[in-house]
Amino acid sequence: MENQYKVSSKREHPLLDVWNDYPQSLSNNAKSITSPPSIEKIIGDMFAMGEFYYYAINIPDSTLVNLHPNILKIHNLKKYPKYLKEIIDLIHPDDIEFVMEAERMTIEKMSEIGWEHQQSLKCSYCFRMLTSKGTYEMFHHQSLHISKDKSGALLQAVNIHTNIQHITQTNSYIVLVAGIGYRDDFHQLHYNKKPGQKLPDYSLTKRELEILSLLALGHSAKQISGILDLSYHTITTHRRNIFQKTDCTKTSELVKKAIDWGFI
């Protein structure tokens, strides 16, 4: 039965308890509205302004496949990790509690939206990871469920980790659940909002958020015009509005604020 479905691993990790608390996220009969995009398309569309790597998780046993070679250099690893536990062990111990709660928050938001959209919802948040320098640096984490079997069991998810230490060293503790493809969801979930923390009292439109993400990837207005099939004038107008709304004067400042405020 669906409510009895659980996953396990030879190398146990703390997220197993979180996942197993929500069996419907692991196995459900909801049919996806559209076919999920390829891993290549997913990677190309996700934010990665800095050194990054990705990997796919086999959800039933937490083994890893399709690991990007950057993972070895960034974390000074001698061989590719085989289990998710090895990735989690690189996270700063003080951030593990937040990571577990962030996972709970994203699963609960997915449940609220509807499991039929499970493969069209991207989740992101930040935490510190041990690097080849022997120090912990800030990373931006993105995840997406990418495949289910015919019975509805979740088979794989893809994770992307980007080193953003050069952009910000402060964790906003904002968890973002955003739609991809046909979905326009944009949900900012706040974890233990810090005393005195000021969040922006304005919102960007879906198109502005889309352009912001492309600016963060380093694309010029001309390139964004081609990607979105919009006129150059339209893109520059949106860009000007984004800078005015965020009170920014340059792209690097814009990207930092976007991360700090949980926009990307």
Automatic annotation (TrEMBL):
It comes from the Bacteria. Pfam families: GerE. GO terms for molecular function: DNA binding. InterPro entries: Sig_transdc_resp-reg_C-effctor, Tscrpt_reg_LuxR_C, WH-like_DNA-bd_sf. Residues 197-262 form the HTH luxR-type domain. GO terms for biological process: regulation of DNA-templated transcription. Keywords: DNA-binding, Transcription, Transcription regulation. Gene3D superfamilies: PAS domain (3.30.450.20), Winged helix-like DNA-binding domain superfamily/Winged helix DNA-binding domain (1.10.10.10). PANTHER family: DNA-BINDING TRANSCRIPTIONAL ACTIVATOR DEVR_DOSR. This is Regulatory protein, luxR family. The lineage of its organism: Bacteria, Pseudomonadati, Bacteroidota, Flavobacteriia, Flavobacteriales.
